[in-house]
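User: Please predict the structure of the protein below. I'd like the answer in structure-token form so I can feed it into my own downstream comparison script.

Assistant: Understood. Taking the following sequence of 164 residues as input:
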Amino acid sequence: MRGKTSAAAAKPAATRARAESATVAPARSADDPPATLPVRPGEDPWTAAEVAELEQELQSDAATLRAEIHASEEAVSGLMRDSGDGAGDDQVDAGTKNISREHEMSLAANAREMLEQTERALVRLAGTAFGLCESCGQPIGKARVQAFPRATLCVQCKQKQERR
């Protein structure tokens, strides 16, 4: 927890303000033109079609993740019901059931985390913080955002984070 506090304190005030304002930004209507997304020097600017495609991809990912979470929760519920009627199961059967239940719970947790990141990206896209690194405030890069729309850090800051 201490590392997160010092990392948050090290963020420039302008970057924190942009990130905070993104969490309360209203969703764009279909009639509103997309905001100009930041790009790195030498990159082509975002077109309206690219922004719309990015938003559609994030919406689709969110729907898929919601379905995965629902399926995993159903599977865990079924495994929990079945765990009580294991009379006569040997240790291997009981262990297999436990592993299956833990696996489904892990899948559901991972899907929830991805859904949270996706929804956060949609909020940022509707606001002003999308495409800006949360650490240094510089543009993340169009190619990186197209490859991983949930990215919140530029390549350099992500590498620094992974080295810690």
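That's the full token string. The chain is about 65% helix and 0% strand.
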